[in-house]
Amino acid sequence: MARPGGFEAAEQQQQQQQEVLSRQQERHYRLLAELQALVKALPSACQQRLSYTTLSELALALLDGTVFEIVQGLLEIQHLTEKNLYSQRRQLHSEHRGLKQELFHRHKEAQQCCRPHNLPLLRAAQQREMEAMEQQIREEQRMMDEKIVLELDQKVIDQQSTLEKAGVSGFYITTNPQ
């Protein structure tokens, strides 16, 4: 007895869907096994925080490739931010080096024009000026470093938020280093 054409097509479509689901399930198990292997390499305190359920949910999130694309985008943004911050820090260091050289040359010229009996007073004043500049440079460097840390912390929050919104298990906004 011949089956109607629509029934065969539906049956074939159902079989194809089952094959796709079967391949996805195999891939899910493979990703889960890879994640479990990665977790075994972590310190035991970190291992305890990553349950089987969390790893399974992460493996599911990795199935369609969207999370990889999101992470790649976040990584590119992070690298650009790091390069920019490094450049800013290097620029500040260069400016400080220029200021020190300028001050050194001014001091040297002043010493060459100074009368010998005034030289000790001049050197003492120049030493105070150099120490004040060094203090200012340390303060500016500290402020720059704090700015860098705050900006990197904000990038981490942005990354956490993006991954949370994408539905990646275990991601939420936190400032807790654990």
UniProtKB/TrEMBL annotation:
Q: Which UniProt keywords apply?
A: Coiled coil
Which superkingdom does the taxonomy of this entry point to?
Eukaryota
**Sequence ranges of Low complexity compositional bias:** 8-19
Q: Which ranges of the sequence are coiled-coil? A: 123-150
Region entry Disordered, spans? 1-20
One short Pfam name that applies is DGCR6
The similarity annotation says:
Belongs to the gonadal family.
Among PANTHER family, the record links this protein to: DIGEORGE SYNDROME CRITICAL REGION 6 DGCR6 FAMILY MEMBER, PROTEIN DGCR6
Q: What is this protein called?
A: DGCR6 protein
Source organism per UniProt = Spizella passerina
Lineage runs: Eukaryota, Metazoa, Chordata, Craniata, Vertebrata
